[in-house]
Give the backbone structure.
Amino acid sequence: MKLKNMLPAIALLAITLSVNAQVGQNLTAGSGSAIKQPVSILMQLEPIVLKKAPEHSLSPKKEFFGFDISKTKQQFPGLISRQTTWTQKGKNNPVATSKEAINAEQLVPLLVAALQQQHEELIEIQKKLDKLQER
């Protein structure tokens, strides 16, 4: 009986691992391109303060930082993924809860590109300042 209940979870895990392996192969193939205007992309995101702790959080904090999922989904649908959490509601009664969440890992390359762009701009500004001070 327990094996019968676990089969959907095992199938989901196998599919997830297969998709992750395919994505990993595609990313290492070198077919990507540079991110254009990363700072302007980041400026479109709207950070918010959440007054209620996320369901998965055990932290005693009263404020959390995040993004408005509905606005982010309209502007950047690729950042939104569906997360499923399994919990037990009684003996032998697993219940799946699914919700939309922002995949923060996808923001890391964008943040790095934005830092690089700003660093280049700072170097240019420093050079202009040095030229003005020489006069």
About this structure: The mean pLDDT is 78. The radius of gyration is 22 Å. Helices lie at 2-28, 38-44, 69-75, 107-134. The chain is about 50% helix and 20% strand.
